Amino acid sequence: ASRRILFVGHRFPPDGSGGYELHCAAVRDHLRARGHHVRVLAGAREIPSGASRDGVARTLRWCPPGRRLTRSQARDFEAHNRAALDAQLDDFRPDVVCWWRLGETSLSLIGRVHERGLPALGYVGDGWLHEGVERDPWTPYREQPLPLASAATWVFNSRWLRDSTRAAGVALETTRVLAPGVDHRLFRPGPTRDWRGRLLYAGRLTPAKGVDVAVRALVALPGARLLLAGDGSLEHLAEIASLAASLGVAERVTRRRAVSGVELAALYRDADAVLFPVRWQEPFGLVPLEAMASGTPVVATATGGSAEYLVPEANALVVAPDDPAGLACAVTRLAGDPSLRARLRRHGLETSAGHDRHAASAELERLLVELAAAGAAPRS
Q1: Is 111 in contact with 142 (CB distance < 8 Å)?
Q2: What is the pLDDT of residue 144?
Q3: If you ran DSSP here, which 8-state letter would residue 205 be given?
Q4: 338-353 vs 324-336: helix axis angle to the nearest 10?
């Protein structure tokens, strides 16, 4: 039977093009294709806020990180977001609520749904569940703790993220680990070819992603060219451009806006290697899996949850974070060893085959339908 499912999150495409937002949209599309009624309640950072369009109401307010609201401002912020949620609950009357990244919105919305006796599932793809407590504008004025432990079934994209969330002091009762997957209808292997020195970085251009490390590595890779496919702040883009110029590699670094779908798949297939030089603890990381599905060798740092599927010397070459020399050495190995590239390609295809987007979406659907059928949130 079809269910009425309300998604609630900080951002929703096209406002936000990170892996978390794209995964949320993919699950929404899967559920709709399966006959479920899905509505989305989100904030708006880069596009106009407003009433519902295509089932997406962008009426939540968000607070920029680091900004401290007065008690009066925080109360108004909370009241607005609570009214926005109540409007959707009263109008749409969902069978189950699915929480996505709440970030700098209102964590108290989780308690609001719990108070109304609605079952809920929270999908946690980054540190929002524990970091959000610090970013939530109402936290300094909250008198009662949030009922996070019992308010939802919490689904994490990696064991590492679940364990680190618990280690941060968030008590959780019902949890699952469900990694996102690759759309294998889109990301398919291209033909094998001789090495041409075409390197690709795909994703957000932020300091945490280590793009500067890839640029520095080019100094030791005179025959290589690096394509940066992604968006970032004007400040960081200027820093990267300045770094490339100072190192004398600017002519070998090209940047293009973030792409998705068939355009991104084509970039993966055209690359000789995909670099994933992140320096932060990556909660999971879809880029290496998409590259593997495209038959392209991966060089990565294997931090955080990405270590759960990156196997050194089998499906990827693993280097330390903040190590341009090590990154350059790994690329040099790939350039000179066709058998190594073939081995990484073969094992990468096997790894990516075990991470299918449609299977992951189907499992999330099963959990949501089970919760809706039970008709009550898990209680302590």
Answers
A1: no
A2: 79
A3: B
A4: 100
> Which tokens is 70 given?
């007065």
Number of other CB atoms surrounding residue 181 within 10 Å = 24
Instruction: Write down the pLDDT at residue 380.
Output: 40
Q: pTM (2 decimals)?
A: 0.92
Which pLDDT belongs to residue 13?
Answer: 87
Q: What is the pLDDT of residue 141?
A: 84
The residues spanned by each domain of the chain are 4-181+357-374, 198-353
- What is the rounded distance in angstroms from the CA atom of residue 215 to the CA atom of residue 304? 23
pLDDT digits (tens, 9 = 90+) for 133-166: 778 888 888 877 888 888 999 999 999 999 999 9
Q: What are phi and psi of 248, to 5 degrees?
A: 75, 25
Q: Is 357 exposed, middle or buried (0-12, 13-18, 19+ CB in 10 A)?
A: buried
Q: How far is CA 83 from CA 70, 116, 301, in A?
A: 20, 14, 44
* Residues of the chain above pLDDT 90, percent: 78
Evaluate the omega torsion of the peptide bond into residue 14 and state whether it is cis, within 30 degrees of 0: yes
380 to 90, 118, 123, 220: CA distances (angstroms) = 26, 15, 20, 58
Quick check: 201 and 275 in contact, CB under 8 A? yes
Q: What is the CATH number of domain 198-353?
A: 3.40.50.2000
Q: What pLDDT is attached to residue 49?
A: 59
In this prediction, residue 349 carries a pLDDT of 99
Residue 140 in 3-state DSSP?
helix
169 Rama sector, left if φ>0, alpha if ψ -120 to 50, beta otherwise:
left
Residues of the chain with pLDDT under 50: 376-380
Closest CA relative to residue 337, chosen from 272, 293, 287: 272
Q: Quick one: fold of 4-181+357-374? A: Rossmann fold (3.40.50)
Q: What is the dihedral of CA 16, 294, 161, 34, to 10 degrees?
A: 70
Q: For position 379, what pLDDT does the model report?
A: 42
Query: What one-character DSSP code corresponds to residue 175?
Result: E
Domains 4-181+357-374 and 198-353 share a fold: yes
- To the nearest 10°, the Cα dihedral for 346, 351, 352, 358? 140
